[in-house]
Amino acid sequence: MNKYVASIRIKGSSVQTIVFADSQLHARLILQYQFGMDSLQSVPIQVNEASTIKPMSPEQARINALKQYKKNATQAIKTERDRQKIHHAQQQITQAINPKN
After folding, report:
1. What is the torsional sign of CA 12, 13, 18, 24?
2. CB atoms inside a 10 Å sphere around CB 54
3. Gyration radius of the chain over CA positions
4. pLDDT in tens, 32-52
5. What's 98's DSSP letter?
6. Sign of the C-alpha dihedral computed for residues 19, 22, 28 and 31 taken in this order
7. What pLDDT does 50 receive?
8. What is the torsion angle, in degrees rounded to the nearest 10, for the CA atoms of residue 93, residue 95, residue 98 and residue 101?
């Protein structure tokens, strides 16, 4: 049996539900039989237990935020160095084309 997630409409409200079935077609048929033919809003999508995302603890979130900050700062430094190299090269080209006598 596989785990499937689908959106259904119950009395005008959209709700996500889980169903265990052998195939996507089987999951759709189970949901339609249980909640009605017109209640299914999305196709059932198979979900693996390994793909579920667990919430991070505050300590883990802080470490991930610092890692992202470091990555962004490193990228900003590289971008600035590249910009300065290009600017310096452009100045050298301009001086080579228009030498001051």
Report:
1. positive
2. 6
3. 28
4. 999 988 888 888 998 876 555
5. S
6. negative
7. 58
8. -160
Q: Are 1 and 21 in contact (CB under 8 A)?
A: yes
Coil vs helix vs strand at 3: strand
DSSP for 5-56, please give it: EEEEEETTEEEEEEEEESSHHHHHHHHHHHH-TT-B-S--EEE-GGGPPPPP
CA distances from 5 to 21, 22, 57, 80 (A): 11, 13, 26, 46
pLDDT digits (tens, 9 = 90+) for 5-24: 999 998 888 889 999 999 99
Instruction: Note the residue count of the chain.
Output: 101
Tokens for 34? 């249980």
**Whole-angstrom Cα distance, residue 22 to residue 2?**
6
Contact 28, 40 (CB under 8 A): yes
Whether the model clears a pTM of 0.70, i.e. scores above it, the answer is no
